[in-house]
Amino acid sequence: MSVDILVGTLWGDEGKGKLIDVLTRDVDMVVRFQGGNNAGHTVEIGDEKYVLHLVPSGIFRPGVKCVIGNGLVVDPIGLMEEMTALKERGIDISTIELSDKAHLIFAYHKACDKMKELAAGKAKIGTTGRGIGPAYEDKAGRCGIRGGALRDLALLEKLFRTQCEKYNTRFAAAGVDTLDVDAEWAKVKEAAVYLAPYVTDTVLSVNKAAKAGKNVLFEGAQGALLDIDHGTYPFVTSSNTISGGACTGSGIAPRYVDTVWGVMKAYTTRVGEGPFPTELFDADGEELRKIGREFGATTGRPRRCGWFDAVISAYSCMINGVNKLAITKLDVLDTLETVCICTAYELDGKVITEMPTSAADLARVKPVYEKHPGWCCSTAEARTFAELPENAQKYLNRIAELVDAEVAIVSVGPRRDQTFLV
Ligand code: GDP
Ligand code: IMO
Ligand code: MG
Question: What CATH number should be reported for the domain whose range is 265-421?
């Protein structure tokens, strides 16, 4: 029996979806615990490619329970569309459970998200526009609407109309288009009828599974550097993305947790605004984006690309308590003659190896690089660590040493089979 948590260690898009799919071969239950459909988790199986936003990435393994936990903010219309699309492609969605405590995202949250970003101008966060921040604001403000209301249409309608009117007053005052409440309610009602049979007390099902000795895997969304407390605030998302979030976001106690998997790209990417010390603006950055196909799985935006940053990665491993690393996209570095690792920063004439707390300071640091010779051959067919070129092995070993965690899985391509245990 094991209860494991898998999280992204950077700014998201590390390949969590692929790793969850690989690891669920031996798992009974996969649980999402935070975020919403700002996430885009890609799973490639044979010639089929799926991008999941709310449905856990265990959905492709028959019989695996897929839980959308209490810590999420869920767009009911988005979830209905995602589930319908999966069903149309022949995937069994009957294993999905939606928490009665998860908060719901409505059109007014999305409109508010866009309004705030527009008003912020150059200071914008670069959100996904999915209404994530405003929905978590309502949760903290104790005026959110929870999953349980999907089972009671009369209650849902009353709560929804009250909130809609409140937001419409705000929109009108700001000179922003107001929402057509009746039209929005019709869409919400359809989604509520569709989702109601999936709504349940997931805190109970997760705890029962853990107590019964089942293998449970928690699927993080985003990454540690987007965590509301520990990330590059204010350029973060609005939830606790780190491993600790799995407990509050699902109702499982910390004592059950065995392993924390940290998924880490062999280089670094970021979507949206905010500091990124090792960002590349040259041909190497363009090469990483092109070969790594670094375009957002949710918004299609080009991802910013840069060298591996051991300072932020070590920090991330520390706050997540990562004991097993899964390093992805090693193959993307195959053609580079030199690969760099940032081992420290220079800030105000001093060399530092700890990540500064303030985003403004992080934006001012100059990375200190260690240069490594590339391997200039394909790693895509390697299926053991020993089959990797020597320079690639040295690169991975150096990363493990710098972030103080063990490399347990290496991924050398998007497909299931392009993955091996170390
Ligand atoms: P997630 O949000 O962490 O699940 O990651 P995304 O799905 O947003 O982005 C990761 C992208 O990299 C997807 O297109 C994956 O298919 C792809 N991918 C995952 N692992 C590898 C790998 O080892 N090599 C390559 N070349 N692509 C990978
Ligand atoms: P996955 O799970 C990468 C980023 C946005 C923006 C910031 C806040 O696929 O790794 P939000 O819409 O959450 O309020 O946006 O967070 N962001 C992600 N970046 N991968 C993600 O998810 C992300 N989810 C949010 O680009 O900078
Ligand atoms: Mg993604």
Answer: 3.90.170.10
